[in-house]
């Protein structure tokens, strides 16, 4: 949402045909804990496509602070849970 506010033209707010910022795949509602892995696996391809499209945007967008924060490594990324 921050990117759409920062780049309204590229986000298609004035003219949806001019949108170049990709749509972030929406959240899915989880009903049971056993479905968490299934949902994560189903979301891998759309999220991968989103990330690839995001980094292929012009540098003023793909290298903006919001994108860099989105891809920033967090401590949990370096030592993920073993489960």
UniProtKB/TrEMBL annotation:
InterPro entries: NADPH_Oxidase/PX-Domain, PX_dom, PX_dom_sf. One of its GO terms (cellular component) is cytoplasm. This is SPD2B protein. PANTHER family: SH3 AND PX DOMAIN-CONTAINING PROTEIN 2B (PTHR15706:SF26), SH3 MULTIPLE DOMAIN (PTHR15706). It comes from Atlantisia rogersi. Residues 1-78 form the PX domain. One of its GO terms (biological process) is superoxide anion generation. SUPFAM superfamilies: PX domain. GO terms for molecular function: phosphatidylinositol binding; superoxide-generating NADPH oxidase activator activity.
